[in-house]
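Exercise: predict the structure of this protein bound to iron/sulfur cluster.
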Amino acid sequence: MTRYSSTNDTAESDLQKEYMEKAAVYVDRLADTLGRRPQCCVKTFGCQMNARDSEKLMGILTQIGYQPVDKEEDADFVIYNTCTVRDNANQRVYGRLGFLNSLKKGKPHMKIALCGCMMQEESVIDKIRTSYRFVDLIFGTHNIFKFAQLLVTMFENREMIVDIWQETDQIVEQLPVSRKYPYKSGVNIMFGCDNFCSYCIVPYVRGRERSRDPKEIVREIEALVDDGVVEVMLLGQNVNSYGRNLDAPMSFAQLLGEVEQIDGLRRIRFMTSHPKDLSDELIDVMKRSDKICRHLHLPLQSGSDRILQAMNRRYTKAQYLALADKIKNAMPDIALTTDIIVGFPGETPADVDETIDVVRRVQFDNAFTFIYSRRTGTPAAAMSGQVSEEVVHEGFDRLLKAVQDTAKERASLLQGQILDALVEEVNEQDASLMTGRLSNNMLVHFPADPSMIGRIVPISLDICHGFYYTGHMTTQKDG
Ligand code: 5AD
Ligand code: SF4
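Solution:
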């Protein structure tokens, strides 16, 4: 049963809008003292869900009078939206906090806030309270919608404000959002995860799975399209189980069917899929759609049945291979990408061989390879057979080589084709080129004018440079 209610959403959003007005008064006062508009910097660590949350934070910050800047050095208010999926993300936050402390010493009015997944861990909060006392505000993943209210509390108090909830049944999505890109946007369709893969901390820090009402999702996308968006990325930890807990249950494939009908929307992407829940219905909807992009991110994690079982992934190597085959047979032009973990407790070089075998057989277009990170509180952290660093690195290097070989081979297959690209931005290295994204997520660089940004144009893929193409705009289309 869903506990979601859009009436609650409206009431809570109205309340937060009142807090935004109050916060704006404090920001105005600061502007008077500084003799300029105060500046804010939001840094995002981690996944697309966090990136979307940061857009919400920025929406509120700009509304109350802050001006966004890229660098912490230039900011009067710095917010770190953190990730805790792997320990190296945590370490980066601690490292940068030291730097923020030195900035704040030269700028006493400076405020520092921390939020996101890392803040849902008690040990992190203890450490910040004792060793990083200069932080002004800490909140978590469940009460991010209360940001405006928390800002007012922060402005009215001198001591550190800590507000972490263990869970929530609220979904508040009617607040201002400051989008990074005018032409594309993430859209949350669900929150949390119920899968409890044994290595993963997400279910503990993001809570139980909750799906948004499909009507709200469609309404949000319609508003985005009215505002110039042509591509949406539907976001959830496991989009394939979307809708199961709604009052009127519906499948992810059905949701896609509804989103597809939105006039003016040109492209639909989604992330992330769990192989165990990927239905034939979804493959069929994708196959028949000309809006759903030809890209599926399908985390494998391991190719060894023994490790998959210990990971609680609930599929076997053979099942994954069969699924990949089925998808590729239905859509030969689809790009498959994946996530793989090396060094899970008990993993041997023979297990890595199994994973490499899957990489070679599936021919992934790209794979994100991670070294296993022990997360306190997860079942895997207590498992015996933690793998030595040396063995992990040996396996990681072998896997990376296999991944790069197949990705290169896959990329080269597009040579000479003419495919539609969404023109996204000016090329970072060469301002005479624009960077576009193909339906299968590959990037192509080509001469064009920045006025083309946000348009979808046919591009001839002339030269493959390993993982991307250079090409030129053309009026012709293939086939
Ligand atoms: N260690 C290493 N990688 C992890 N991931 C999740 N948890 C861990 C962990 N403890 C990886 C998985 C997941 C991706 C988002 O992060 O591959 O798909
Ligand atoms: Fe973590 Fe598994 Fe949920 Fe993905 S599906 S967020 S890996 S528990």
